[in-house]
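Table S2 (text version). Query chain:
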Amino acid sequence: MLQGKSKKPKPSAATASTDDHPTTKSPPPKPSEPFLPIPTEQPTSSAEKTDFEAFYLKQVTAEFADDLDKLRNASDFNDNSLPILIDALKCTARTYSEEEKAEVMYGAK
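Corresponding structure-token output:
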């Protein structure tokens, strides 16, 4: 047996006390922002609503043409699928506020 200083065994990870390693608390998560803008106003005229919707659909279909072609060529795409797809695209156009629509259509104020 050795004499002199006694060596204290190191605690294992399972038995290590929290005093050995100070913990830091992270702040609580912030509320997440909505993914899509929430409409705040009604369109001022049906013509403006239609103009933006037509412009939006033209831009979206041009930007996602390859993806839309893949959908149309899918084996499960049928006569009922096209109206659903069109309605889904139109719904996304309705997520923008009147200010955002005017900025897109007529430029920044």
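Notes on Table S2: DSSP finds four helices and no strands in the chain. The radius of gyration is 30 Å.
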